[in-house]
Amino acid sequence: MSDRYIDFANSSIGHRVVGALGLPTPVRLERWQAGRLRPIEGALLIGGGPLTEKVSALANRLTDTIYSYGADPTLATAWIPGHGQKLKAVVYDASDLVQVDQLKQLREFFQPLMKNLDHHAHLVILGRAPETLSDPFAASTQRALEGFSRSLAKELRSGGTLQLIYVGEGAEDQLEGPLRFFLSPKSAFISGQVIRLKACEAQVMDWSRPLSGRKALVTGAARGIGASIAETLARDGAEVILLDVPPAKNDLEALAARLGGRGITLDICAEDAAAQLIEHLPDGIDIVVHNAGITRDKTLANMTPEFWDAVLAVNLNAPQVLTKALLDSGTLRDNGRVILLASISGIAGNRGQTNYAASKAGLIGLAQAWAPLLSERGISINAVAPGFIETQMTAHLPFGLREAGRRMSSLGQGGLPQDVAEAVAWLAQPGTGAFTGQALRICGQSVLGA
Ligand SMILES: NC(=O)c1ccc[n+]([C@@H]2O[C@H](COP(=O)([O-])OP(=O)(O)OC[C@H]3O[C@@H](n4cnc5c(N)ncnc54)[C@H](O)[C@@H]3O)[C@@H](O)[C@H]2O)c1
Q1: 254 is a domain residue
Q2: Could you state, in chain order, the average pLDDT of each consecutive group of 10 residues for the chain (450 residues)?
Q3: Residues 316/308, Cβ–Cβ less than 8 Å
Q4: Which of 164, 197, 230 is the last residue of a domain?
Q5: DSSP secondary-structure letter at 298?
Q6: Same structural domain for residues 167 and 247?
Q7: Are 163 and 230 members of one domain?
Q8: Per-residue pLDDT at 258
Q9: What is the pLDDT of residue 18?
Q10: Do 219 and 319 fall within a single domain?
Q11: Which of 166, 197, 228 is a domain's end point?
Q12: Does residue 9 sit within a domain?
């Protein structure tokens, strides 16, 4: 469904009307286009502490134009505020800030560049996870980065985004994957997030096809977000297997044929679903995306047992049972990736969605609980939590709820299925085993549950 407010606010007359009324003007976000090669098309500024050396070493694979500010000037051309081109991407290493008075370095670094950011600029701050630091003052200083970065993300304009990445011990050499994702339009609808990276042995061999040689299963793939995930995984080189209910057979098989993959028609809640699935995957699988999901909204006072049971069965029980069966049978290979489609409803709660929010919170819990056990086999498991995404599911919402869902975020609009698909494709990469047991919100920094 098209967002008429964005169309209006970005028209020449609409822009004037919206400005005169003091209303927000969300910009149309820049997204990754087929055929693009460079993650950053424009200037990258690097500054801060010791990790700048690691970032500088890979920066020429991200863009041609690299500046440094306040860092070792031998690493790149020195940036002078107000001169040269506007900044399309910024990486600031705050990992060595361990005392309160050092936090002013954040203000000193970011203040001059706030008026020199290009449209759709992507910013990343690097730090060390507070829970890994034994000195309480250092841990508190690193935790302060969260408040700073979430607030600064809310001050960005023109589609700008900002994330904080806590870099774990041994993960310093694995920054390329996250930076390729978070400094590019692939993460256009993600902002204000805190990401924890751990060390990971598996690495991407070819950045133009990072999923080459990997086999991926996507449930609920006949339409909406699932179809977009299947397309994006295939674009990145994966062989895709698409699953959906028997009534969706025609759409499913048409998409599977277009992507050079195959379709499986199966109700994931069928009693023998696990056995059937394993039978369909005799050669094993590397990536499982549990995307199939339903809503049956009612306030609890009016919730029928059927509505409750259906949502919990599809959204939570089936991913639990199927993942366990794929693991126990050895169908999910070592270094595999499991990605669960949660929702910000599962974080913030939502009126009329006790069943849905319980199921989605359960998925986040599943990722957290299973991650340490699966890491022995190099398998990562994560949840993604989309906010308001423009699909058939949200097109059916009443007008008021739909508008609130779109506007109550820093980016002032709904996301597209592509935004979720790009995040899933990043989580599916070999090197992203460094990220596990977490919930990545794809919500334009929605105020819900923030
Ligand atoms: N659209 C949003 O704003 C939004 C926000 C947060 C989370 N999500 C989640 O993202 C996922 C995809 O959402 P969408 O908007 O694309 O939904 P959608 O309704 O457009 O698509 C869901 C797909 O899942 C399939 N499916 C449902 N039950 C199934 C079953 N028992 N067995 C096999 N397949 C089944 C459907 O046939 C359909 O093709 C869902 O898990 C949803 O909860 C969506």
Answers
A1: yes
A2: 70 64 77 93 97 96 93 80 92 98 98 96 98 98 98 96 96 94 98 93 91 98 97 98 98 98 98 98 98 96 98 98 98 97 96 97 98 95 96 83 87 95 97 90 88
A3: no
A4: 197
A5: B
A6: no
A7: no
A8: 98
A9: 60
A10: yes
A11: 197
A12: no
Domain contains 13: no
Tell which atom from ligand 1 comes closest to the C-alpha of 360.
Answer: 43
86 is in which domain, residue-wise? Answer: 31-197
Pairing relation of β-strands 332-341 and 65-68?
A: unpaired
Does residue 348 sit within a domain? yes
Of 54, 134, 43, 58, give the one whose Cα is nearest residue 89: 43
pTM for the whole structure: 0.95
Strand order in the sheet with 43-48: 77-78, 65-68, 43-48, 87-93, 117-127, 161-167, 193-197
Query: What are the pocket residues of ligand 1 if the criterion is a CB atom closer than 6 Å to any ligand atom?
Result: 219-220, 222-226, 244-245, 248, 267-269, 291-294, 314, 341, 343, 386, 388-389, 391-394
Ligand 1 atom 21, closest CA: 224
Residue in 264, 393, 413 to alter for ligand 1 test, most ligand atoms within 8 A of Cβ? 393
Structurally, the chain folds into a number of domains equal to: 2
pLDDT value for 450: 64
